[in-house]
Design goal:
Layout: E1 11-14, H1 22-29, E2 33-36, H2 44-50, E3 53-56, E4 75-78, H3 88-93, E5 97-99, H4 105-108, H5 113-126, H6 129-137, E6 155-159, H7 163-174, E7 178-182, E8 194-195, H8 199-205, E9 208-211, H9 225-229, E10 235-239, H10 248-257, E11 260-265, H11 279-286, E12 290-292, H12 301-324
Parallel strand pairs: 1-2, 1-3, 3-4, 4-5, 6-7, 6-9, 7-8, 9-10, 10-11, 11-12
Helix pairs in contact: 1-12, 5-7
């Protein structure tokens, strides 16, 4: 690995440069040297030792082990709200500031990609879109084989009524759904949904359960064997948040038993590490009631352009704060 900055200017390395915003790169170059460098995951520790700012997406994990050796890096940037791929506490101890989109509520109101994907994978699941398309590609045209179900008139339960959950609630409402919600952490937006007093109440009354809480020790396995056992029979689970919020072993058991009619997942626990024999992947190969996508919720051209330009300015301001004390 070769990264070299000029004297007097910080060095910013964008470690996942494919499709990176040209406008964001130019904004960074007004005050820093910028290198776009495809960095192997195993070399993340070396990268932290050689540059001032490292910009990551979701293809890397930064652990305490990566920060054990002497490092030069003072800022790690990631244009997402959930930073479970970065050990924030270890970074703080190492003198590294993590700059992300967490807490940028006003700006994030304009970022709708994950909310739109929530609708997309829900519809793909209940209308059996992947299976129908694959049948056509095999030369078959049998509409009777792919009867689906509708959203209209059903009840959707939103777990987490923060920014993203509130946007998703408005989208589902347009489909003519009854919207209920549960969120013990935020002031409840009564205009969007009827409040459930507990997760169990939401699970028992919802045809669709859509998850939009941040991942933390408090929300790990929030959806587990107990909550799934209380779910309305025939409900579907949709998760575009983080994989660890669902106990995947319990979800698989519920799918196999028929307690849960289906699931649409954009996230899995432990991603991006993904074993070919992952139990949910293996199940999806042989069953039509599980849709899995590789964490593409925020992956749109518009989303990347806006968030990367916004974060570039945030990094600039944070760097000047560090330099001026």
């Amino acid at each position: 690995m070769s990264v070299v900055g000029s004297v007097g200017r910080p060095l910013v390395v964008i470690a996942e440069p494919k499709g990176f915003s040209t406008a964001a790169i130019e904004a960074l170059r007004t005050w820093a040297d910028v290198e776009l460098l495809e960095v192997p995951v195993k070399e993340i520790r070396e990268l932290l030792a050689r540059c001032d700012v490292v910009w990551l997406r979701l293809g890397y994990r930064v652990t305490a082990k990566d920060l054990a050796a002497p490092i030069r890096c003072r800022v790690i940037a990631t244009a997402v709200t959930g930073i479970d791929h970065i050990d924030d506490e270890a970074c703080s101890c190492a003198g590294i500031q993590v700059v992300s989109l967490r807490g940028e509520t006003e700006f994030l109101e304009t970022i709708r990609a994950t909310a739109e994907l929530t609708l997309a994978i829900t519809l793909a699941l209940i209308r059996r879109v992947p299976q129908a398309m694959n049948a056509v590609l095999r030369g078959q045209w049998n509409r009777d084989a792919f009867q689906g179900t509708e959203l209209f008139g059903k009840t959707v339960g939103i777990v987490g009524l923060g920014r993203l959950g509130s946007i998703v609630a408005t989208y589902f409402k347009v489909f003519g759904m009854c919207v209920v919600g549960f969120d013990p952490f935020v002031e409840f937006p009564y205009t969007l949904a009827r409040r459930c007093e507990s997760l169990d109440e939401l699970m028992a009354g919802s045809d669709v359960v859509s998850i939009h809480v941040s991942y933390s020790p408090a929300t790990r396995h929030l959806i587990n064997a107990s909550s799934l056992a209380r779910a309305k029979r025939g409900a579907i689970i949709v998760n575009t948040s983080r994989g660890g919020i669902i106990d995947e072993t319990a979800l698989l058991a519920s799918l196999k038993s028929g307690r849960i009619a289906g699931a649409a997942l954009d996230v899995l626990n432990g991603e991006p590490d993904f074993a070919p024999d992952h139990p949910l992947k293996q199940y999806a190969c042989d069953h039509d009631n599980l849709v899995i996508t590789p964490h593409i919720g925020g992956n749109t051209r518009e989303s990347f352009e806006k968030t990367e330009l916004f974060l570039a300015d945030k990094i600039r301001r944070r760097w000047y704060e560090l330099e001026t004390g």
